[in-house]
Structures are given as C-alpha cells and as structure tokens.
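Before relying on records like the one below, remember that each one covers exactly one chain. Contacts with other chains, cofactors or solvent are not represented anywhere in the record.
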Amino acid sequence: MLTILEGSTQVFNNSFNALSTKVELDRGKTYTWSLTSVNEDGQTIGDSYSFSTPGVPIGNFAPYTAVITITFDEGPSQMKISWTGSDQDGDALTYDVKVFKEGRSIFEAVDLASTAIAPIEFSIETEYSVEVISKDGSGNFSISKRTVLSPD
C-alpha cells in the first residue's frame, strides 16, 4: 500500500500488486510517502521519505522528512537517536520527537533546535519506534517515522 501525505493531510492511498505506479501531484509542494507491505502474516509499515515536486510553489515549502539514525551501544545498553532535517527554502527548523517502546511512549520533547536526544537505555530484542516532526517558521511540517528491533 502506498500512502502520500502533504503535511498531515493524506493526498493518496492505494494498494498495488505492481512495482510502480503514477500519481498526479501539485507542483511546488513537499510530500511524504511510505509503503506498507501486506501479506497473509500481517503488515509491515516502512520508513517515510519525502520529496518536493518541481514548479513554482504557492507560499513556502514544507520541510523534508528527517532522516532518522538509531544506533545501539551494547556496552552500556544505550540507544542513540539523531536525525538530519532540511528545508528547500533554507528555513530554520525545530523538531518534536517521540520515542516508543513496544508501542508505549517512553520519551517526548517539543520544539527542539538540536538534532539528537540524550541516550536512552534499551531492552534487548525489543521494538522501538521514533517519530520526528520537522517544523519551519511558516507553520509547515513533515513527519518521519522509523521502527527498529534492538539487538539481542
């Protein structure tokens, strides 16, 4: 299933059996997309990515989705989370960050100017999800999500 968002507004959502498709989108806008794989065993939601369509925008571009990096330092059992954000207009960005352990919130921060948070202690073989909302001063935003399994 392919899902495309403009900010938090879903502009396209459809299932396909093919490896490619065409989607008509507005010029000069920033979109976020993700794939969800579905089979008889369930579904897996993929990471989110962003892009801007060519053309003259009306107003200000939304930030690109942040590229989230999650590493595990097994010595002290610490999970390190950082991200890289960017904006086609060069606007200064702030970030809202949420971290989930097995679907339960374990960390939340808003309006961060930095691109990393303090290390978090992790449990072995546990699913962690990180959500980063990149925001510019014009009120535009994009949402990036990444889910990983900690080492055993």
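The mean pLDDT is 91.
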